Amino acid sequence: MKKATILFCTCACILLFTNCHKKMHTTAKKTPAQEADYAKNSYTDAQREQGRGLFEKTCGNCHDLPVPGAFTISQWDEILPKMFKQSKMSYDDAGLVKAYVVFNAKKP
Ligand code: HEC
Fold first, then answer.
1. For a FRET experiment, which of 52, 74, 83, 84 has its CA 20 to 30 Å from that of 63?
2. Are the C-beta atoms of residues 55 and 101 closer than 8 Å to each other?
3. What's the CA-to-centroid distance between 93 and ligand 1, angstroms?
């Protein structure tokens, strides 16, 4: 009985967590316009500034520091997941960096 309760709670937590994760996460394909809105409205100036700090600290380690305005949002969508993996950045840090990059991306 007790075991079943624990099992149930664990499953419920996992479900809840993965669901939130999906909602938050960028893997749910957004259009570039939605990405732009998200970067603008779901993050504060201070958070994007924090993202810039992380970007400058991390993203120039293996190559020259890229310029956010050099690529459009759709191009960054292709590049960033690979580079976040390269940088071994935490999920939250990656979110901040992405907000900064998308906010300053090349306008299509
Ligand atoms: C551990 C090394 C490493 C780190 C850290 C790293 N990169 Fe890269 N990056 C690479 C390599 C290797 C390539 C070339 C191969 C490729 O495109 O996968 C590359 C290529 C790129 C390109 C060119 C892609 C293109 O299609 O022209 C961009 C832009 C870029 N990285 C951005 C970033 C950003 C932004 C970060 C920080 C989040 C970052 N990189 C962190 C190794 C790294």
1. 74
2. yes
3. 16
